[in-house]
Amino acid sequence: MLQRASALILKRGIATFHSRLCKSGSLFRVHPSVSKALAENKPVVALESTIITHGMPYPHNLSTAMQVEAIVRAEGATPATVGVIEGEVHVGLSSEELEHLALCKSSLKVSHRDLPYAVSKGLSGGMTVSATMIAAHRAGIPVFVTGGIGGVHRDGENSLDISADLTELGRTPIAVISAGVKSILDIGRTLEFLETQGVCVATYGASKNFPAFFSPQSGFTSPCQVCSPEEAAQLIASSLSLGLQSGVLLAVPIPEEHAAAGQLIEEAIQAALAEARAKGITGRDVTPFILKMVNELTEGKSLQANIALIHNNAKVGSQIACALSKQMT
Ligand code: PSU
Ligand code: MN
C-alpha cells in the first residue's frame, strides 16, 4: 500500500518535471533580451544571485541587484542575472523574478552540486559562482561579474572545505570579475589551488597585489596584471583562442575611498570566525553566517563597502565585456 502511494507520488513528480522540460525543450531559459544581444554579438554580462538570496539582507539585496543591472546597461552591455526559479535555470531575470528571489526566505543556495536537486524538485534559489558559470557558459556568455568568489577555507587542508567555484574555474572557459577573496578564507592556498586548476589570475589596475575583497591588498601577488578593459579583453580572448577549457579570474581591488573601514571589518571578521567555530557552523552555511555577523558588528559598514565594490566590479566588468565584444567581431 505504502509502496503504491510512494510510486504514485514519484510518478506525479516525474510528470510535473516532464511538463516543465517539454514547455521549452530545455531546463535552461535564456531571457529574450539576452538571446537578442548574443545573436547580435553585443556584450552581455552574467551576474550571480546567491548574493541576492544569501549575501545581503532585504531590501539591500534587491536594490543592489537592480542597481548592478542598471550600471551594466549604462556601460552599453546587457545584464543576465542567473538564478533558479521553480526548477528552471534562468539566464536573465525579469524584475518580478529578481524580487521573488530577494523576498523568498526559503530559497536554496544552489552550487554546482545542488543543480540537479533544485531542478528535480522544482525549487527556487540563488546560484553561486560555480553554478552561474555553468549556465552562463551554456548560454554563450564569456564575462561574469560578482562580488567575491569562494575559496579554500582556513584549515581547508584538513576539512577539505574548498569552494566548488575554484574547480569550476578550472574547467569552464568564462572570465569572472570579482574583488578577490575574503580574508575569512585562506588566500594563499586559494591562489595555489587556482594554479593547480590552470586558472589564469590577474589583478586589474595599478598594482599586482591580489585584493582581499574589503581591502585592496591581501599581501599576496597575482601572477598577472592588466591595466585597462582592452588589456583584460585581450587576456580573455587569448584564453578563448587557445581553446583552454579553464576560466580567467580578474581581481578588481575595492576603490580606495571605500576601503577606509577595512581595519574595522577585518577585526569583525576575526570575531565572526571565532563565533562560527564555537557554534560548529560548517559547509555552505559558513559564508552567509560570517557575512551577517560582520555586517552587524560593523553597524552596516561592511554592507556599504560590499555594495560599493559590487558597483565598481559591474562597471569594470561591463567595460571589459564591451572591449571583448569589439575584439571578437
Ligand atoms: N563571497 C561573498 N559573498 C557571497 C559569496 C561569496 O563575499 O555571496 C557567495 C558566492 O555566490 C560564491 C559562494 O560563489 O558564496 C561560495 O560559497 P561556498 O564557499 O559555499 O562555495
Ligand atoms: Mn564549502
From TrEMBL:
GO biological process: nucleoside phosphate metabolic process
Keywords, alphabetical: Glycosidase, Hydrolase, Kinase, Lyase, Manganese, Metal-binding, Transferase
GO terms, molecular function: hydrolase activity, acting on glycosyl bonds; kinase activity; metal ion binding; pseudouridylate synthase activity
GO CC term, one of those recorded: cytoplasm
Record-given protein name: Zgc:136858
Residue numbers of the full-length protein present here: 1 to 329 of 686
